[in-house]
Amino acid sequence: MKIAVGNSRMDKKWKNRDISWEDLCARVGSTIRTTETVEEYRKLKKGAQDNIKDVGGFVGGQLREGRRKNGMVLCRSMLTLDMDYGKPGVWDEIDLLHDFQCCVYSTHKHTPEHPRLRMIIPLARDITEEEYPAVARMVAKEIGIDLFDDTTYEACRLMYWPSTSANGEFFYKTKEGPLLDPDAYLAKYADWHDASTWPVSSRQSEAVRRSITQQADPLEKPGIVGTFCRAYTIEEAIETFLSDVYEPSSMNGRYDYIPADSAAGVVVYDGKFAYSHHATDPVCGKLLNAFDLVRLHKFRELDENVGLDTPPGKLPSFKAMSDLA
Questions:
Q1: Hey, CA dihedral for 84, 293, 300, 69, is it positive or negative?
Q2: Over the chain, what is the mean pLDDT?
Q3: What would the pLDDT profile of 8-24 be if each residue is shown by its tens digit?
Q4: Is 17:3 a contact under the CB 8 Å cutoff?
Q5: What is the pLDDT of residues 70-83, one digit of tens each?
Q6: How many CB atoms lie within 10 A of CB 87?
Q7: Residues 300, 317: contact at Cβ < 8 Å?
Q8: CA gap 86, 93 in Å, rounded
Q9: How many helices (H) and strands (E) does the chain have?
Q10: pLDDT for the residue numbered 46
């Protein structure tokens, strides 16, 4: 089975490896105990929590040039799904109702009362970066898609190796069975390439809408961002600057990412925001105004060696986009 491994979420270059299912299960079947208690961990800010649980990790496939980014996934050999909304007894239900081979292990926030589990499902064949979210979402739908984190379907997503607070419960189970056949799940779609038909949780569409209401109206933003967004709607920005990246879909209000196999994955909201579901799109999973949509497609590589805490207005891509605008 093909995976990529890194010592930290901060690693710039991940190492492609081959591993047997038995060795992978052995690796995730034991945990690293950290020094803080469950209660102490819960009170920490997210950044501090991330530092504690970052004991290295893996991607369930291999990466081009070792780069863990959208568009750089060579293949996926397994599904890795974060069950952030589990309930007591959820593993017993999965074990009873589904026959495919898999394993689960608890993540750092797990408690017996509020299970948080990571599910690994090996596949009968390697799948592409484009196929991954379609297969993963259909499998999640059959298990119960509301159980899973809405961002867990990203093909380049890292999964931390197990770690557990000093007094926390570590949970690990395996299930024997046939390898999951991705083609059987792709066949459940009329056309899996149509991203508009992919299952989503009851939270996801609402989350995008809520994000829109929480963001400032791009037309009212000060400076160059507001000026650009008043001059160009999303549709006009695509036509003027990104016609080689996106093209209008057959579905009204949506665009296709031209390099992708899938279609209708870019949703436009009121001409002010765009949200891409295309797995290979560098801006997949981001709600963007017209300025940032063009900025990230044209100049994102300028930001590769910039610190994560750099203010948006100080990014090299922002300066380059300002010059373009």
A1: positive
A2: 96
A3: 999 999 999 999 999 99
A4: yes
A5: 999 999 999 999 99
A6: 12
A7: yes
A8: 11
A9: 11, 16
A10: 93
